[in-house]
Each structure stands twice: as structure tokens, then as C-alpha cells.
Amino acid sequence: MGRVERYIHEKLEENKLHFVLIDPDDTSPEEASKIAELCEEVGVDAIMVGGSIGAEGSVLDNVVKAIKESSSLPVILFPGSHGGISKYADAIFFMSLLNSRNPFFITGAQALGAFTVKKFRLEPIPMAYIIVEPGETVGWVGEAKPIPRHKPKIAAAYALAGQYLGMRLVYLEAGSGAPEPVPPEMVRVVKSAIDVPLIVGGGIRNGNQAKELIKAGADIIVTGTAIERAKSLEEAKVRLKHLREGIRV
Ligand code: 1GP
């Protein structure tokens, strides 16, 4: 287990965690730097960087560099494919979209990116990525067969399969900008099936939603849009604090 994964586990012994996702295609390096500074100030636990469209090359590198310069939080890549790798990050969620219909998103992109991860000495953290309805852009791009919202057992079966395949985190994803988060009942059923930490993201806008998901069994809450859409840093700060109150129950 590498440094960032150990950090996650150590923190989870004390509290549930909040990761903020920054999409380099929608966020300039200057904005990313201010958001990261704010995240550190209010007690966010890590920054994830990635996106389904355009989050690669110098656009990605410049955002990761800006975050590293302005905060000491771990930066974990959240790649849409092998294009989403930056040597400036600390770690990468080495993820497989288990319910994709296209093997490219299950093992293909991973094979194309593996040697780059090694060359850059990035810490790979193996993760099962499962897309739940509606799935939004990542569901469409990733050619997912999204898990129906009222079928928690299907999600749990994928999650347990991921764990048995050796993945050390499970991520339930409703898709960035989803109108509603993953249903709490699905989180509860998945959590009761697995032993590895459970990450939940997509459509989480406020502390009340986060609290409900934490109560259902989420270990780590991911938010992106809630902060991206804030009209000012002040508003972002209020939202982050409210989310934190919901997560640190
Ligand atoms: C997307 O789960 C993340 O991959 C975050 O979603 O942008 O809706 O917070 P939101």
C-alpha cells in the first residue's frame, strides 16, 4: 500500500472523508489553485483531478501543478482514459468501469496507461468504478450499462466482484451533475456486501444529502459541481463547510 492509500486508511479510522473533484476542462489553473487553498482551509481530505472530456495534456498538467503549489493536500488523478495521467499528481485511481459494455473502459485504457503510471512513479490505487443511473456524461462516454436506481443488489454484486478481483476501493457514481445522488438504500446494500472503503459521488450538492449517504454507509463523499458552480469563493466556502458538517457526523 502506498503513501496516499495509507493516508486514506489512517484518516478513515477517525472520520468519514470529503474529496473535492476538479475538472481541468472547466477550471483554470488560477481557479483550481484558489479552490485547493480553500479546500485545505476548511478540512477537505484530498483533491481529485479529472474529467471525461478534455482533461489531458497541458490542460491537466497545469491544473495539477497549480493545486500542488497552493496546497499540501494529496492530489489523486481520476482519469477518463489513459489520457488523464499527469506526472505532477501524487496518486491515480487505477480504476476499471466494471459495468461498461466496452472492454476499452474495463481493461483497455488501463493497459495503455500502465507503463506511463510506472514511468511517472504515480501511486496506483486499484478501484472498482460502478455507474448508476442516470450516469450523465461519464455514463455515455464510458458506454456504461447504468445500474437501475431501484436495483441495489446489482450494484452490490458488481462491488463485491470488484473486491474479489483485488480492487481496494469501490466508487458508486451517479455522474457529475446528476439531479439526484445515488439512492441511500443502494449505498446501504453495497456497504453491507463489501469490506473495502466505499466512495459515493455524483449529484451531491449539500450537507444534508451527504449526511444521508454517510449514514447509509458511504466512507468518502466526492463533490465537484457544488463547488464549481459557486459564484464566489465565499459561497464555495459556505458550501464546503455545510458539506463538512454533513460528512463529519
Ligand atoms: C463526478 O462523482 C463526481 O465524477 C462528482 O459529481 O459534479 O455532481 O458533484 P458532481
UniProtKB/TrEMBL annotation:
**E.C. number(s) listed in UniProt:** 2.5.1.41
Reactions mediated catalytically:
sn-glycerol 1-phosphate + (2E,6E,10E)-geranylgeranyl diphosphate = sn-3-O-(geranylgeranyl)glycerol 1-phosphate + diphosphate
Residue ranges that the Swiss-Prot or TrEMBL entry lists as coiled coil = none
Q: In what pathway does it function?
A: Membrane lipid metabolism; glycerophospholipid metabolism
Question: Entry's Pfam families?
Answer: PcrB (PF01884)
Q: Which UniProt keywords apply?
A: Cytoplasm, Lipid biosynthesis, Lipid metabolism, Magnesium, Metal-binding, Phospholipid biosynthesis, Phospholipid metabolism, Transferase
Record localization: Cytoplasm
Q: Which InterPro entries match?
A: GGGP/HepGP_synthase_sf, GGGP_HepGP_synthase, GGGP_synth, IGPS_HisA/HisF
**Enzyme class, one word?**
transferase
Enumerate the residues binding Mg(2+).
23, 52
Which co-factors does it depend on?
Mg(2+)
- Name the residues that bind sn-glycerol 1-phosphate: 171-177, 202-203, 224-225
- NCBIfam families on file: GGGP, GGGP-family, PRK04169.1-2
What the record says about family reads:
Belongs to the GGGP/HepGP synthase family. Group II subfamily.
Its biological purpose: Prenyltransferase that catalyzes the transfer of the geranylgeranyl moiety of geranylgeranyl diphosphate (GGPP) to the C3 hydroxyl of sn-glycerol-1-phosphate (G1P). This reaction is the first ether-bond-formation step in the biosynthesis of archaeal membrane lipids.
Q: Name it.
A: Geranylgeranylglyceryl phosphate synthase
